[in-house]
Structure of DNA-binding transcriptional regulator, LysR family:
Amino acid sequence: MAHNLFSMAKQSAPTSEINLFEGIPQFLAVARNASFRAAARELGVTPGAISQSIKSLERRLGTPLFIRSTRHVALTDVGSVLADRIGDVRAVVADAIRQVEGLQDEPVGTLRLCIRRLAFGPIVEQALPRFRSAHPNVAIDIEVRDGPIDLIAEGFDAGIRIGEFLEPDMFAVRIGKPFHWVVVASPAYLAKRGTPKVPGDLLEHECIGYRIGSEPMPYQWEFRDRDRDLRVRPPTTLIVNDAGALCALAERGMGLAYTSDRIAEDALREKRLHTVLVDFMPPEDALYLYYPAGSRDQPKVHAFVDAVIASRDL
């Protein structure tokens, strides 16, 4: 009987053309109260409105749902099946709502992050272990990318970028210690080709270009000459899109490289690389954790922001 009931409902009109829940609240109210008048009082409508809703539902299903008399209202067999089935669905929905309500303040799901390579090492070493320890049930999906990114369109919860690459209309929090841009070269290269004294000297040197994402041209080198900003794109015969490879090639004497003192930190400390043009480098820069306005109330994003901020030595 239940199978025939729902088959008739499907045959009467395509699902997309009817409201599957139309008449259901009225049906349940009558079933609970065994009375059209009592159902009307419960729902705050007239008995006539209740009667019309029930008749419409019965026409849609193609079968009576109630046995009516002047004194009594009782469910038909089909009506009993429908009431029981709806009761099962209501229990499932109520249980799902209780579960969701219990998760409102608990980080769950997958945290998708897009992190600039410059920040990857410190984040992995400090913030992620802190976050992972506190929230082991949250999966983490990280994409390391220096190029352009649209967090919302690409489904990321948060990103970490330097200031000039931040997307508009985002919440941003400055994180970690500031860093400096540097031009570096190996001792062997400098011994062979000499040390550039001003940015214009780069035209006479081998320079290793760094491509960001799918940009057709390598990144411009930025300098500061007194109060004037300079952007130079030196001639390059070698281009890479990985910051680690950039420093590795410079260490091998392949040319001058423009990078950050963070990425070149070990090589500079161990004298495998030396800085040049120090007096022409721009002011210090910083990393920012940023995320869409709609994400800041998500527990997983809020917890990650807290973990990053707590990692003061990033």
In short: Residues 77-102 form the longest helix (26 residues).
